[in-house]
Amino acid sequence: MKRSNYFKTLGASLLALSMTLFSQQGLAEQKITQGKYEVHYNAFNSTFLQPKVAQSYGIKRGKTRGLLNVSVLEKQADGSTKPVVAVLNGKATNLTSQVQPLEFRQIRETNALYYIAEYAFTDDQVLRFNVQVQPDPNSAAANIKFEQRFYAD
User: Quick one: DSSP state of residue 47?
Assistant: First the structure.
């Protein structure tokens, strides 16, 4: 397999894995809509990623390391959606108000574009996420706010 195809496959696997994990957790879809944009997001333990996939993206796997995955889609006139570039800023805060800034990295695939950010947690810890997503520099950013409990694997 050519190197570029290998990485495309790994990237698609990362996105598919995160979406699969999301659906297997039995949670409602995590999405917000603002105007013509849909912002999909999910957070999960980094150990759900296969070691080779994590390594290919420079993701640190660990039983107390998590990954936030965000994708932004623009609704098209024909009803379809297409991935778009956005500016993301955010933080994760624990219940004692300790803040972790989230540094998002863009992952671009053939037909996909998404952003990932890593964070640390302790066993049985609740994190509150606050993320601003701005796909259009002429419009206000969409705000994602949610909290999730994490367990060490």
Answer: G
